[in-house]
Design goal:
One of its GO terms (molecular function) is ubiquitin-protein transferase activity. This protein has one domain: 2-Layer Sandwich (Herpes Virus-1), CATH 3.30.40.10. The radius of gyration is 12 Å and the shape is elongated. The chain has a three-stranded antiparallel sheet with strand order 2-1-3. By secondary structure, it is an alpha+beta fold. The chain has two helices and three strands, in the order ββαβα.
Length: about 70
């Protein structure tokens, strides 16, 4: 069972390309991009996002790969 931080809150699946949104939460890139195509709010809080820039979360990606043994 993967750690909760490794799971995308939108897909509820293990992330492979985690990105951090303006709300400080990490999401699977494709899932949050689909979300932001029609919404400007945080999937976690429902609050408006101050911007739609998605930053790659390299640290989390590395931790997931280490957990997977890749």
């Amino acid at each position: 069972e993967p750690p909760a931080d490794f799971i995308c809150p939108i897909t509820t699946e293990l992330m492979s390309d985690p990105v951090m949104a303006a709300d400080g939460h990490s999401y699977e890139r494709s899932a949050i991009e689909r979300w932001l195509a029609t919404k400007s709010t945080s999937p976690m809080t429902g609050e408006a996002l101050v911007h739609s820039f998605l930053a790659p979360n390299h640290t989390l990606r590395r931790q997931i790969r280490e957990w997977q043994g890749v």
